[in-house]
Write a structure and sequence with these properties.
Chain A: Pfam families: ABC_tran, TOBE_2. The complex is a heterodimer of chains A (about 350) and B (about 290). With about 350 residues, chain A is an alpha+beta fold. Chain A has helices at about 45-50, 95-105, 110-120, 135-150, 165-185, 195-200, 220-225, 230-235, and strands spanning about 5-10, 20-25, 30-35, 60-65, 65, 80, 155-160, 185-190, 205-210, 210-215, 240-245, 250, 255-260, 265-270, 275-280, 285-290, 295-305, 310-315, 325-330, 335, 340-345. Chain A folds into two domains: about 5-230, Rossmann fold, CATH 3.40.50.300; about 235-345, Nucleic acid-binding proteins (OB fold (Dihydrolipoamide Acetyltransferase, E2P), Beta Barrel), CATH 2.40.50. Chain B has two domains: about 1-60, no CATH class; about 70-295, Orthogonal Bundle (MetI-like fold), CATH 1.10.3720.10. The chains are: A alpha+beta (about 350), B mainly alpha (about 290). The interface of A and B includes residues 53, 100 and 104 of A.
Chain lengths: ~350, ~290
């Protein structure tokens, strides 16, 4: 039973930069929560505060009810996996894993047993004698994960652990890490700027921007029902169109959509997969480019004023550049004053 | 196919071939200087101390100058005090410079900039000025004695003209180079390696011992080799600050040559000093070779 509470945590760096601003989050036992945001959003600073590598300037962090806000990293029940693996290259794999256990004065036979078990868990059985420099990037990251897991931390912290790996390896490793996390039921906080990683691994996603929470929800909810224009634009591909609402219709150039909200400026959000197209001679939009990805196609469209939109289509061969198009959105959301004010049913 | 491949490879080979004479020429200057100023005098000294002219004017193999050096109590005492000074300086340099380098590596801000400037400062002070400052501060009736006297305290036992005089001067003189070499070594220790160690439960001392020290062992060896080579063959500071007897090999050679007017004896002392320096130099070469092998 390991629960993490982050209460009103703030981090202001010397010079006045507010990296994290009054951030609160509860992570339940065995839950994997992803902190997702662009560079500079404060997600890594927040993770480092949980790990004890940065001191918050305000707020409180508790693990299982124990206040760890001002404890040094070596006295926290957390284990961190770093982006650069941070393996000790003068030690072999076994010594990297055994180091923390030796510091705890564990008997040698028990250390051997635990290290071999965790190497088995991460699929590196028999690699104990190898020097870390002899391992591939993926193997090094598994050793880094094993080094944290062998100490059985209450909270596992992952700081963009797959950022330095290639796409194929990243996809394989995130599945493996998710499997291990679920098998061990270890409470995990995972920092990433890759939305694919967050959507595929997390129980919940915290979308961060400028040190603040934009939205905390399940991955499917964050994707289907983004609460702010930032989340809408950051998660997946989204057509965000600035325009005016007049008499129950959103208007931008020759493009109009029924929108039952009060008149005034608004941002319309339409996913490419929710924007159907029909060939038309009426003024509206024209095809700029068609890209065939094999499984589907992506049509780039221009409104009369040059606004670029994207639509995902099943048969890209039906469209060609310069063709007149009628836009038929199936699901839209509208934002005003940085908040969602309307969402149609898909 | 083969034509295309050859055509693609040839310019590279030609380029390398063109560059080779320039590279050799650049290397030739220091190599020739080393042969002229180091190798030749060393070989000459070794030759002149082991092939000597006897009473009949015949050139013969003769190790008597070495036999004398290694059986003469005074020469051996001088060698012992040189080795002692070198060893003590090496230990003190490590003890003083390692904390300074660690502080500079892991601290940021104005204070660390001042500390760095202070640590590097001795590099710009000539040894003769340093010796003069030492005498004025720690010598008999120096500034420390005057200050102590002002508050009715007894004078200090001055290290001037004792074996500790050269030790203090040489340590101060070698701090900049040692700090810079250690700092360069510490630059290769990633912050995340240290954070990872703290994360698994290591305290500051354990991080230093298990993570930092193994990573900078080569730099420590290089720093010590450089310092030891300089200290073992030093002249100015031992001459100005050290005792007359026993004396370090530098002043001993000078006195044997100028005052005793025994060039063979001085050359023998030089060859012995050269032998010790070669041993110290081997540590440096070994550590560099090990580093490049990684």
């Amino acid at each position: 039973m390991s629960v993490l509470h982050i209460v009103e945590v703030t981090k202001t760096f010397p010079g006045g930069t507010n990296a994290v601003d009054s951030f609160s989050l509860d992570v339940a036992d065995g839950e994997l929560v992803c902190l997702l945001g662009p560079s500079g959003s404060g997600k890594s600073t927040l993770l480092r505060m949980v790990g004890g590598f940065e001191q918050p300037t305000g707020g409180r962090i508790t693990i299982d009810g124990e206040d760890v806000t001002h404890l040094p990293p070596e006295r926290r029940p957390t284990g961190m996996v770093f982006q650069s693996h941070a393996l000790w290259t003068h030690m072999n794999v076994f010594k990297n894993l055994a180091f923390g256990l030796k510091l705890r004065h564990m008997p040698a036979n028990l250390i051997k047993e635990k290290v071999e078990a965790v190497l088995e868990l991460v699929g590196l059985a028999g690699y104990g004698d190898r020097m870390t420099t002899q391992l591939s990037g993926g193997q090094q990251q598994r050793v880094a994960l094993a080094r944290s897991l062998v100490l059985e931390p209450k909270i596992l912290l992952l700081d963009e652990p797959f950022a330095s790996l290639d796409q194929h390896l990243r996809e394989r490793l995130r599945e493996e890490v998710r499997d291990i996390q679920q098998r061990l039921k270890i409470t995990t906080l995972f920092v990433t700027h890759g939305q694919d990683e967050a959507l595929s691994m997390a129980d919940r996603i915290v979308v961060m921007a400028n040190g603040k929470t934009e939205q905390i929800d399940r991955p499917d909810v964050v994707y289907r029902n983004p609460q702010t224009p930032f989340v809408a634009g950051f998660i997946g591909t989204m057509n965000l169109i600035e325009g005016e609402v007049q008499g129950g219709h959103f208007v931008r150039a020759d493009f109009t959509v029924p929108l039952p909200i009060a008149d005034g400026p608004a941002t319309l959000a339409i996913r490419p997969e929710s924007l159907d197209l029909a060939a038309s001679d009426k003024p509206g939009a024209s095809v700029h480019r068609v890209t065939d990805y094999g499984t589907h196609g992506l049509v780039d469209l221009d409104l009369a004023d040059g606004t670029r939109l994207k639509s995902m289509v099943a048969h890209p061969d039906l469209f060609r550049a310069g063709q007149g198009i009628e836009l038929l959105p199936r699901a839209v959301a509208a934002y005003r004053n940085n908040q969602q004010i309307y969402r149609s049913s898909p | 196919m083969s034509e295309v491949t050859e055509g693609a490879v040839r310019p590279l080979i030609d380029g390398a071939a063109r560059r080779r004479p320039i590279g050799l020429l650049l290397v030739a200057i220091p190599v020739l200087l080393m042969i002229w100023l180091v190798i030749w005098p060393a070989m000459n000294a070794i030759g002149r101390t082991i092939w000597r002219t006897d009473a009949n004017g015949q050139l013969s193999f003769d190790l008597s100058s070495y036999v004398f050096f290694f059986s003469d109590r005074y020469s051996l005492d001088n060698l012992a005090v040189t080795l002692w000074t070198t060893f003590v300086c090496a230990i003190l340099l490590l003890v003083i410079c390692l904390p300074i380098a660690l502080y500079l590596r892991f601290s940021h801000g104005r204070l660390s900039a001042y500390v760095q400037a202070l640590a590097i400062f001795p590099m710009f002070v000539p040894s003769i000025i340093l010796a003069f400052a030492f005498i004025r501060v720690l010598g008999p009736n120096g500034m420390v004695d005057i200050l102590l006297n002002a508050v009715d305290l007894p004078k200090i036992r001055t290290p001037y003209l004792t074996p500790w005089g050269p030790v203090i001067g040489l340590v101060w003189d070698n701090i900049p180079l040692t700090v810079l070499i250690l700092l360069a070594g510490l630059g290769s220790v990633a912050n995340q390696s240290i954070e990872a160690a703290r994360d698994v439960g290591a305290n500051a001392l354990q991080v230093f011992w298990h993570i930092i020290l193994p990573r900078i062992s080569n730099s420590v060896l290089v720093a010590l080799s450089f310092s030891v080579l300089g200290i073992f063959s030093s002249f100015t500071l031992p001459y100005l600050l050290g005792p007359a007897s026993p004396e370090m090999l530098g002043p001993f050679m000078q006195r044997t040559l100028r005052e005793v007017q025994n060039p063979v004896g001085a050359m023998t002392q030089a060859v012995v000093a050269f032998g010790f320096c070669i041993v110290f130099g081997l540590f440096y070469v070994r550590s560099v070779a090990r580093n490049q092998g990684k």
